[in-house]
Amino acid sequence: MKLKFWGARGSVPAPGPETNRYGGNTSCVQLTLDDGTDIVLDAGTGIRNLGLTMQHDCTLQILLTHLHLDHIQGLMFFEPAFDPKTELNIWGPEAPEASLEDRIARYISSPLTPIEVRELPCELSFKDSPTTEWEIGSARVQAAAVTHRGPTLGYRITEGDLSVCYLPDHEPALGASLVDLPEEWISGFELAQGADVLIHDCQYSDEEYASHIGWGHSRLTDTLTFAHRAGVKRLVLFHHDPLHSDDFLDAFMGAAVEGWTALGGAPDRVELAVERRCIELSAATA
Amino acid sequence: MQRPLELILARNLLSSLSTPAFLVDRDGLIAFFNEAAGALLGKRYEEVGSMSAAEWGETFGPLTADGERIPFEDLPLTNVLRRGKSAHARLHIRNATGDSHEIEASALPIVAAEIPRGAIVFFWPVGEE
Ligand SMILES: [Zn+2]
Ligand SMILES: [Zn+2]
User: Fold this and answer.
1) Do residue B2 and residue A144 have CB atoms under 8 angstroms apart?
2) Which of A14, A19, A133, B46 gives 20 to 30 Å between its CA and that of A26?
3) Residue A286 lies in a domain
4) What distance separates the 2 farthest-apart alpha carbons in chain A?
C-alpha cells in the first residue's frame, strides 16, 4: 500500500511563499493498493494535480468524508472526469435531505460552475458509503459517522494486514474528555483502533482551540490523545489551518513530537502531512 | 462495540448539562446518566455503569405513588423506544439510600437516518424549580 498527499490544508486553499513547503492545496490523499487500484480520499483542490498524473481509461474510486467545499472543490478540475473512458465512482455520506449526487450538484451547477454534474463526460456514479464493510479492489473499506459539522464519515481501508484510517475533519473531544472516556464512547475510535497509519485532523494548536470549540476540528493535544488511546502505529497530522505558515508548522511539529513522546510514542511515528510526500507501507515498515 | 455517533453526541451534550438526564440505547439499556441525575439518584454513573432496565428498576424504580415497581412493559419509556413517540410522566424514583422522590420525566426518541438509536430522558424533582 502506498499513500501520497496531494492536499493537506484545511478549510480553504492557502497558496503562497509562506506555505510552499507543506503546501496550500486542500484535502486529497491517494491510496494505491498493491493490486494497483487507486482510492482517492476526498476531492479538495489537491485532486487537480493528482488528476494530471492519472490514467483515464480505468475505474477510479473517490471516497468523500463530507461535502464541505475544501473536500470537493477539486472535483470540477479533476481531468479524468472529462474523459468518457474513465469510470468514476464517488462514495460519500448519506443525508436525509437529498441524495449525494443532488448535494454535490449544488456545487457543480450554474452559477457556481460552467457545467452541470450530468454534463461531466466520464461514466459517473454516486453511491452512499455503506454502513457495513465493503470491498474496493483488494481492500476492505469501513465507513462510520464521526463528530464534525453535518453528516461526516471517517474511513478505514484495510489491505492484507495493513490498515489506514482517514479522519481529516474530526472533533472527538467536543463535550468530552478523551483521557478518561470509555473507548466505545469516543467518536471514530473503532475506525482508528490499531491502524498502521492514522491521518487525523489537527487544525489547531491548544491555544487556538479555545476560541474554536465546536467548529468540528481538533487541537494538538486531543489528536495525540486520540491516536495514543487508539494504539495507532503511525500518526499523520492533517488539515493544516490556512493561517499556519511553514515556519509555524515547523514549530508545531516540534510540539507534536514532544507531546507524542510524553505519551510514550516514538518520535519518528508522528509527522505532519506534506503535499506530494509519499508513505510506503509494508508489513515490515508498519 | 462502538456506540452510534448520535448516542455519543447525546452523551457529550448531557454530560455538560445541569438538567438531570439519562440516555437509553435502542435495546432499553441505560447507557449513561449525567452528574445532575447522579446527584438525585445518589450514585454517579461511573459507580454503576451501564444497566439493564430490570437492574435499573430494582435499584431506582420507577415506582408508583404507593411504592410499587412499575414493570418495564408499562413504562412510558418503553413506548418511546418501541413506537418512536415522545412521552411525559410523573413517577417516583428511589435513590441509593432508599428515599423516594417524585419526579416528572420527559422522554424523546433519538432517530437518525430513520433508524431508532435510543432515547433521551430528562427528569426533575416535582416541587423544585
Ligand atoms: Zn475540511
Ligand atoms: Zn469539514
Assistant:
1) yes
2) A133
3) no
4) 53
The answer to whether residue A154 sits within a structural domain is: yes
pLDDT digits (tens, 9 = 90+) for B66-119: 888 888 778 888 878 888 889 998 989 888 888 888 999 999 999 987 888 999
Joined grid coordinates for residue A7? 492536499
* Domain count of the fold of chain A: 1
Q: Is residue A285 part of a domain?
A: no
Give residue-wise pLDDT tens across range A65-97. 999 999 999 999 999 999 999 999 999 999 888
User: Domain range spanning residue A189?
Assistant: 2-280
- What is the CB neighbour count within 10 angstroms for residue A17? 8
Dist. CA A4–CA A199, nearest whole Å? 12
Who contacts A16 (Cβ-Cβ below 8 Å, separation ≥6)? A24
Decide if A160 is inside a domain: yes
What is the distance between the alpha carbons of residues A43 and A62, in angstroms, rounded to a whole number?
Answer: 7
Residue A259 sits in a domain whose CATH number is 3.60.15.10
Work out the angle at residue A260's Cα, subtended by the Cα atoms of residues A257 and A262, and round it to the nearest 5 degrees: 105
Give all domains of chain B, ordered by start, each with its CATH number: 5-122 (3.30.450.20)
Chain B hits for A96, CB-CB cut-off 8 Å, are 113-114
Q: Does A214 touch chain B (CB under 8 A)?
A: no
